[in-house]
Amino acid sequence: MNLVLISLILLLGFSSYYFGRKKATIIQSSQRLTALPKFYGYYLAIWCAAPALIIFSLWSVFEPTIVKNFILADYLDQNLTKNELQLIYTKVKALALGTYTGDINNFLDNSAGKYIQIKNMANNAKIVIVLAALILSLSYAYQSIKKNNRMREPVEIFLKWVLFTASLAAVLVTIGIVFSLLFEAIRFFQSVRIFDFIFGTHWYPAKTFVRDGQPDPELMKDAFGAVPLFAGTFFIAFIAMCVAIPVGLLSGIYLAEYATRKVRKYAKPIIEILAGIPTVVYGFFAALTVGPFVKEIGNSLGLEVSSESALAAGAVMGVMIIPFISSLSDDVISAVPQNLRDGSYAMGATKSETIKKVIFPAALPGIVGSILLAVSRAVGETMIVVMASGLAANLTANPLESTSTITAQIVVILIGDQQFGDPKTQAAFALGISLFVVTLFLNVIALTVVKKYREKYE
Amino acid sequence: MNEAKRKLLNKRYRAEANFKLFGQIAIGLALLFLAVFMYKIFSKGYTAFQKTWIVTEVHYDKELMLIETDNPSLEDLENADYYEIAYKAMTRLDPSLPEEDDRQLIQMVAFTYEQEVKNHLLKNPSLLGKIVPIRLTASDDLDQVHKGNYPRDIPEEDRRVNDYQLKIYDMLNERGDILSKFNLSFFTNPDSREAELAGIASSFMGTVFSILVCLAFSFPIAVLAAIYLEEFAPKNKFTDFIEVNINNLAAVPSIVFGLLGLGVLLAVFNLPRSTPLVGGITLSLMTLPTIIIAARASLKAVPPSIREAALAMGASNMQTTMHHTVPLSMPGTLSGTIIGLAQALGETAPLILIGMVAFVNTIPGTPVDPAASLPVQIYIWSESAERGFVEKVSACIMVLLGFLILMNLAAQIIRHKFERKWN
User: Please, how many CA atoms are within 13 Å of residue A140, restricted to the half-sphere of its CB?
Assistant: First the structure.
């Protein structure tokens, strides 16, 4: 139904382009026009389709809420809670669509009848209003095609607005992220105190599962302490950085300062392949190869190693991050002005002394920025941890035990069917917002540092 | 030059050599990781492209198939009973086996053996009443034994293939009745709980649909946004805000986009769960900043002289942009788009959150059918305990990496072939 309407609008829009152009060419045959004929076509097409489409989408967005209010108005006098009202509405809808299988009472039946009636009315009204808007605006636009109208400007202004709207998409996505996370997180913090979440040391959400009714508030208090997850996240990120910083930084320095043009040409893209491999592949590698390998070595040294260890996950994550650090620090070091190097060489310093004492300090802000970006990447990494580091949230500093992270717990909680309104699901969103805040913080600092650094030398 | 100075100089030279060596070691380590990684995946995965069959004989006996007419139509064959003859085809391998142990033989082939016997007849109805050789898909355990991935020397009770089955296998192998051919069904079968039947067709189609949806949503919006920001946006606080926003969005962890998809697309807009449509939209939100940044960079690379020339000929700003700047920037934008899509192709976590991790044993035909995607398939299979799935995962990884390499190559080719160099 909606599809037909949209296709009709678009079809009319396209055809009105030709009408507009035709009218313009007719005028053109006798008089000079102030714009190319095609702009008259565009003008007409825009006026034909745009208002109708805008009304159509607004209507589609608001219709469900309005219909719902109409239906539930009958139930308002019964003092029902929000959830019960929602349930009733779902039942009414299912009944109207013929997919309802539960008990049917008179009241529900009436409501379903009303629902169908309102829905039909709304549909008819939508078609009439949209088409009326289309015809009105089209006839207005057709009338205004005259020889002295400058048609290019309105078309270009419209295009500019389209461009502007598109650029708002990024802002919309951010708003969407913040609100969807906040909305669920706030509901979570209504049942679990924010203090218990941030400072609690036991993470065991499965404990709160109760088949019917509300979970015990005492249990809730002790099940959602996120400290083990925060600690695990930074612990694994730390292990990853222990691998990535030395290897990445030294390769970056070597590529920027020592490598011949040919080595650089081949080595750099090959190292960057490491960043292009999907993380799930790393996860598989960590779980199947690195994990057992670490365990074997540990056992031969007489150590107790779990087959899903933080070390395996962290080390593989470190390998994944190497190219971030090496490429960024390569760029940053290459950007250090040549005269700093020349000055140092002129004083008799060797190449490595120049690098350590002159170039590295000069490039330090940029390098720190790249490391921070890499940390934020490590903190947000999901699949490696899910597959290689186990899912039990241990509060431990032993790299040979299994630990869990914020991201891994989000996956664990949400992997099956989710029940919105369940504190477990909401807890995932609370974890999500803490992750978002931490990575945003790291990124903002990193970007500012790098920007400041660039300004210094450019 | 006195002794002390010479010593100092030598020390400095040594330090220089050491430092250079460290750099080389670091590069070597990074390359070594990559090599070990590739070797492990390929050495585990290449066997998955071979499939093992057991050859036996089947007697299409009309009586056992409960066919009563003399000239059975295709429909009669369709409805006939194949249990008995398929069973006989398997037990024929070792007639001396007591009847109560028949299961041991049946376990050596995939559980679809009855269907395979049936399909063979439906393809050649003339075989009815004859005794013909037929090849049946071997069970995944036997398949692994044949490929040498399954240790035979561990105690019998720890093995999924017992001594008797190994004996039969050896006998068949000696007779040449174990076939090993290219595994087409890995590419044409949907997912299955049985490793020997599992294929990537369903997840592959899921990936294709998600990427197409992702492209359809992200490319137009991102290019329009980039044009606005680069060519028309006034320099003010709001434009700066949009810019900061895009840069930060590019660094938001992918799992947060999964939460967004779950909390907004599924919960608010009620889009169908587990479908490539939702997956593609979620991925498009993620690729949006990547494409915007790439498109802006390539718009910026178009020299101002082009714009000035167009403006001098009387073109409006919009005409200059749309007729000259944007077409010239397209190669860079397109290669950036492909790289963004390649990133999206490998994403797993957001798709898991929106439910594309469900077990799907049909091949999706539209973007609104439930589906998995290749990376999610890797995750699902790597969580299964059966040994047969290990090679499947590795093979699936090889297919995925193959696609990534192709996409990156395409991006490189577009960049080098079509991009104009301005001097």
Answer: 10
Residues B252 and B396 in one domain: yes
Q: Are residues B134 and B248 in the same domain?
A: no
Give a yes or no: residue B237 inside a domain. Answer: yes
> E strand or H helix at B59, and its extent?
strand B50-59
Amino acid, res. A285:
F
* Mean pLDDT of chain B, nearest integer: 88
**Chain B residue whose CA is closest to A352:** B16
Asked whether the beta carbons of residue B255 and residue A284 sit closer than 8 angstroms, the reply is: no
Residues of B in contact with A160 (CB under 8 A): 228, 232, 318
Nearest-Cα distance to chain A for B379, in Å, is 7
Structural domain total, chain B: 2
In CATH, the number for domain A221-457 is 1.10.3720.10
Residue finishing a domain among B181, B212, B240: B181
Average pLDDT over residues B17-34: 93
B302 and B155 housed in the same domain: no
pLDDT at A219: 67
Task: Select the residue of B26, B342, B393 nearest A246 (Cβ to Cβ).
Answer: B26
What CATH number is attached to the domain comprising B373?
1.10.3720.10
For chain A, say whether B173 makes contact (Cβ under 8 Å): no
- How does strand B131-137 pair with strand B178-182? unpaired
Span A307-313, mean pLDDT?
Answer: 86
In tens, the pLDDT along A144-203 reads: 887 677 888 889 999 999 999 999 988 899 999 999 899 889 988 888 888 888 888 888
Q: Whole domain around residue B114: which residue ranges? A: 52-181
Question: H-helix or E-strand containing B218?
Answer: helix B201-227
B23–A253 C-beta distance less than 8 A: yes
CB contact under 8 A, B375 and A280: yes
B279/B373 same-domain check: yes
Contacts of A440 in chain B (CB under 8 A): 248, 252
DSSP structure string for B89-110: HHHTT-TTS-GGGTHHHHTTB-
Strand ranges in B260-407 using DSSP code E only, listed in sequence order:
none
Do B232 and B374 lie in one domain? The reply is yes
Rounded to whole angstroms, how far apart are CA atoms A432 and A384? 17
| pTM (whole model) above 0.90 | no
Lowest mean pLDDT across A243-247, A346-350, B196-200, B333-337? B196-200
Segment 225-284 of chain B within 8 Å of chain A by CB: 225, 227-229, 232-233, 241-242, 245-249, 251-260, 262-264, 267-268
Q: Is B57 helix (H, G, I), strand (E, B) or coil?
A: strand
Residue B341 has pLDDT above 80, yes or no: yes
Reference A268, options A246, A282, A248, A245; nearest CA is: A248
- pLDDT tens for A364-418 read 888 998 999 999 999 999 999 999 887 777 787 788 888 889 999 999 888 876 6
How far is B347 from B325, CA to CA, in rounded Å?
33
**DSSP secondary-structure letter at B421?**
P
- B193 within a domain of the structure (yes/no): no
Contact with chain A for residue B294, Cβ under 8 A: no
* Chain B residue numbers touching A323 (CB-CB < 8 A): 30
Facing A170 at nearest CB: one of B30, B34, B288: B288
Domain spans, chain A: 2-150, 221-457
B280 vs B197, which has greater pLDDT?
Answer: B280
Helix (H) or strand (E) holding B136: strand B131-137
Q: How confident is the model at residue B398 (pLDDT cuts 50, 70, 90)?
A: very high
Average pLDDT, chain A: 86
Q: Is B216 on the interface with A (CB under 8 A)?
A: no
Q: Which residue of A has its CA nearest to B395?
A: A281
Structural domain contains residue B196: no
Chain A residues in contact with B390 (beta carbon < 8 A): 288
Residue in A342, A361, A328, A335 with CA at minimum distance from that of residue A458: A335
| Cβ within 8 Å, pair B23-A183 | no
Tell me whether B359 touches chain A (CB under 8 Å). no
Residue A422 pLDDT greater than 80, yes or no: no
| The pLDDT of residue A417 | 67
Beta-carbon separation of B348 and A382 below 8 A: yes
